[in-house]
Design brief:
By secondary structure, the chain is mainly beta. The chain has a domain of 61 residues. It is built from 1 helix and 9 strands, in the order βββββββαββ. Strands 2-1-5 form a 3-stranded antiparallel β-sheet, with no helix packed on it. Strands 3-4 form a two-stranded antiparallel sheet. Strand 1 and strand 2 form a beta hairpin. The chain is elongated, with a radius of gyration of 28 Å. It starts with a strand and ends with a strand. The model has no long low-confidence stretch (mean pLDDT 85).
């Protein structure tokens, strides 16, 4: 039996499968996997800005929300890396010369 899987928290349609199996204890009934339904979702008119969402009872078409703004920690992690320098000149003991690190 074809079932329609949705995200467990948001209800957003994910995919379809034939994972439902006949119930051996109740002939004529099916065992439906968690976070799925035999009800088919509607096709969003504009799939780039809308998606199907299941609320536990029925499907609806909703706008895709914008991505969340990055947190301060993510901004720091994505910041360009800067070269750290000990000082403008250091003395190389192997070559006995001053090396410019600036």
């Amino acid at each position: 039996m074809l079932v329609y899987h949705y995200h467990e928290t948001t209800g957003v349609f994910l995919n379809t499968s034939e994972d439902a199996e006949p119930n051996p204890l109740e002939p004529g009934k099916w065992l439906i996997p968690a976070h799925s339904t035999p009800k088919s979702p509607p096709s969003p008119p504009n799939p780039k800005t809308q998606h199907a969402v299941f609320d536990g009872t029925s499907w609806s078409v909703q706008a895709i929300p914008p991505p969340p703004k990055p947190t301060h920690a993510q901004n720091i992690a994505n910041a360009p890396k800067k070269k750290l320098v000990a000082g403008p000149l250091i003395f190389d003991v192997l070559t006995q010369q001053h090396v410019d690190r600036g």
